[in-house]
Amino acid sequence: MSWSWLSISSLVTRSALSRPATRLYPVERREPFRKTRGHVKFVVDDCNFCTICAHKCPTRAIVANKKEKTWAIDHSLCILCGNCVEDCREGCITLSNDPWPPMEAKEVLSFRKDFELPPA
To answer: Which of 59, 93, 97, 100 is deepest in the core (most CB within 10 A)?
Structure first.
């Protein structure tokens, strides 16, 4: 009986004196890995709204309109494949290493209401 008490007390002592095994997430953030794909960045001033990015997107996450000169991306559908970045002639779309902040359901629904996706 005394040996089990000793092993538990040594475990508690080791845990109390060592650093935590995890990060304190909101305060300590991990640096993203070198080739991490975080999110798609878009510079509207450089775009000529050719809509190639919208046609190349396999998940139809990008909605571009040449007549109205609008461009939008649904980050909940984007799989970060990079097709839009590779095919953009103007270079206005890039992949960032920084992760996109979590989206709430109401943000996704408002996007889909504002920019109705064309049927596949």
So the answer is: 93
